[in-house]
Amino acid sequence: MSFFTYDEIDELGEGLIRQYLGPNAERARRVDIEGLVRNYLKLPLLYCSFAEHYMAKIGFIADGFTPLHIVENGKPTERVFAKETIVIENCLRQKHESGRRRFTISHESAHYVMDRTVQYASFHREFDRERVYSLEDFSGLFSFEETLIDQMGAALLIRSNLTADMKHCRGYAKISSAAVILRHSRRSI
Ligand SMILES: [Zn+2]
Q1: How far away, in angstroms, is 23 Cα from ligand 1 center?
Q2: What would the pLDDT profile of 110-144 be if each residue is shown by its tens digit?
Q3: This model's pTM is above 0.85
Q4: What DSSP string describes 82-130?
Q5: Distance 59 CA to ligand 1 centre (A)
Q6: If you measure from the C-alpha of residue 188 to the centroid of ligand 1, how many angstroms do you get, rounded to a whole number?
Q7: Number of domains, the chain
Q8: Residue 47 domain-assigned?
Q9: Per-residue pLDDT tens for 11-23?
Q10: Dist. CA 182 → ligand 1 center (Å)
């Protein structure tokens, strides 16, 4: 994956959204992230119940060979999805999960935007302070690459007029737009 600065990522994300929205780009404040994934990026987007042992993992982008453990008809099943398929945990379809659902979809699509080759499958997980993590889990959760992916996910989700406000806040608080969104992801983004 190529590495960019936060500002470059914001610019790339905004450029992509402008192309997707076309003539509506000036007026639209809220990005239809599912529409962007399905109609513009042309990626399959599915909802499944993830198997219990995935715990905090709520999103997945397939590399075409890594199996995903899901529950189908009440039974645990291993399923290999076609490369670039985005799979989202089914419980995020609930209305009150709209913020987490949108952020998870944008995070997974950001993996594709930042690295079109999708060489390896990747999960989106949330930090759960009650849980004991392995070293591997920690490195996945807090890797520099995942931080950049989160930043692109945020750029795909909200318009630059809003990110400008966030940049203003960020100047004082030294936090990324993604962090602001993550903090507010239980509300409606
Ligand atoms: Zn990720």
Answers
A1: 31
A2: 999 988 766 666 777 766 666 666 666 665 656 77
A3: no
A4: PTT-EEEEGGGGSGGGHHHHHHHHHHHHHHHHH-TT--S-EEEE---TT
A5: 8
A6: 21
A7: 1
A8: yes
A9: 888 889 999 998 8
A10: 13
